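Title: Request for sanity check on Oxidoreductase prediction

Description:
We are preparing a figure and want to confirm that the structure record we downloaded matches what your pipeline produces today. Could someone re-run it with the sequence below and paste the raw structure tokens into this thread? We only need the token string, no images.
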Amino acid sequence: MTGTSEGAGAVTAAPAAGDRSGGPADPPPHGLGVSLPSADAPAKTEGVFPYASDLWAEGLLWAAVLRSPYPSARILSIDTKQAVEMPGVRAVVTHADVPGDAGHGRGVPDRPVFAHDVVRHHGEPIAAVAADHPDTARLAAAAIAVEYDVLEPVTDPQLAFEAEPLHPDGNLIRHIPLHFGDPEVVGETIVEGLYRIGRQDPAPIGAEAGLAVPRPDGGVEIYTASTDPHADRDLAAACFGLAPERVRIVVTGVPGATADREDPGMQLSLGLLALRTGCPVKLAATREESFLGHAHRHPTLLRYRHHADTEGKLVKVEAQILMDAGAYADTSAEALAAAVSFACGPYVVPHAFIEGWAVRTNNPPSGHLRGEGAMQVCAAYEGQMDKLAAKLGMDPAEIRLRNVLATGDLLPTGQTVTCPAPVAELLRAVKDEPLPELPKDTPEEDWLLPGGLEGAGEPSAVRRGVGYALGMVHMLGAEGADEVSTATVKVSGSVATVLCAAVETGSGFSTLARQIVQETLGIEEVHVAGVDTDQPSAGRACHGRHTWVSGGAVERAAKMVRTQLLQPLAHKFGMSTELLQINDGKITSYDGVLSTTVAEALDGKELWATAQCRPHPTEPLDESGQGDAFVGLAFCAIRCVADVDIELGTIRVVEMTVAQDVGRVLNPRQLRARIEAGVTQGLGAALMENLRTTRGQIRHPDLTGYAMPTALDAPDIRIVKLVEERDVVAPFGAKPASAVPVVTSPAAVASAVRAATGRPIGRLPIRPQAAVAQQQ
């Protein structure tokens, strides 16, 4: 769809070649390939960027949510009388006050807005309160009397198969049996392993917050840091019993997002309270409520058996993967598909037999987190590659090189790898990079010891290990997901505006959108409008979608505007638009006859165009785990150098050397920052991040009890190679950057600790006792 307001353009003769006299100073560089800074960086650094927790409205009420203290219980009664009668309380809502659909969920709508008959996990919402003051709201929520019949929780996913159903839909969410090749084949060398991956929390910088404002038409507007506003709107409308057009989600600043970011149940509680009271209602979650409410990475149990010949070539991989979904399905079916499909890693495996299950338990809910599914299996299959290398007496990097995947090879799902897959090139790049120098064995250098400056270790007990890992992720959604996105580009005067409902979560989409328009139209001043559900949908902010799909939509819309801009000039001079080019705000013809500025060509016109981008379709995995389920793949190689105190089990990661398949570098500084952040997040999963539970109850749901890496924990991260082999089916040829280093770095750290200690290291995060070398 396109539109234009007509006007006349001014055209001048071209100046002599090389004549720059009297011209303006060279404009700052812009467009694709330039490290353009983020437009909102000044506001964020100055502390004036508007987040949901900063919002205010006239007549504001405050919300609080009552959550279950038990992971499993029957609810015998809920008495809200005392809370309702407290001074300052304006409304109390429970399951009985939900006018529409009582179920919601990211993938499957199996989660109640408020628990009523049973409680299925610690922290599940029971009721919500709106009051004049936040303290009053919290006191009123605590005053709600709930009588529970506490039940024995099912917390071991292995017991979920035989346990009584925890949900009307049963305990099994999905089972994927992948069969590829001949099950009777046996390798000459066999290694087995058992691996456990912990529960990593997204731990956003800012806890969840939101503001709901009732509308005169009986609808409601919800201001929150949603990463999928249209899906959240549809869930909310169904819950409120309203038509979707009467619910509007307005996206505020997103204070960190490494997952779906928001607990949708919080938005539903806010909307119900606003509709009930007729007043704006705000909720700012505490850190504890944030830990209890949103989804986490799936804890996973993996059993592996690798078969190889005497030369180290893989023959067959057998694996069992059990993912703990927690109380509700969320995106567990998607995570399991990724885990099963990538269970063999970026290696050529002629025969593969993988069984994968995702089950419900009474543990905290699991959901989308960068590299879900792929991260868990990467830690396992790379552990197996280290075991094979040790058993065959081979170099760990060499055995990987003998088996790496390349373009044209088959995945165990039967899908041909058609995108660039420079896995061998990536591995050689990190392998050939010089190693860091060894620390000096003197007291003056004790800050180099694992454990830091105050560490109790002795230099003589420190061993250095070098480990390798190769990781892969899929791009966009999978198994038939419709990944369409829509964008509009408007040009008026010397300013362009982009309207696209792609949420800026820190991935850099808003900066990329500006660069695309600058590159295509030669306009330096480009604004990206805020996101709300009045705009067409752009889908979820995950799997690199917005770089590919939303960026593609912006590019197509900008090109349509470009055609509108150039057509009158081309017609006037009797040439096609393909013979005109735009650089640095100037329009010139191939022969130099035509030269004018973009502003002169516009001459007061307003041009606009709306376009969509939809990647080629995929298909679900069949009953044997076969199918073309993925649009594209991205790869990464990491070498980790770690020092381990083999007496205390303390670990210091000295250096992470990274080579990554990026397709095309669109913003060098932004790309490197994304890779470094991904490596650091993976380091957390490897060494410290584990949301611990006791019988389903979260222990220490705060940033004191949940350890995360800080700047002091981050090692030297050296990005030694970015392979720019463009994917021809992707707009600009670029690939997502942040998920694949998250997937790869935990496996690399574990590999380095194995090399230093000789221990198998089958659990993440790595416990100190696991890194203590066995006595000789």
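Thanks, this matches our download. The two ends are 74 Å apart (CA to CA).
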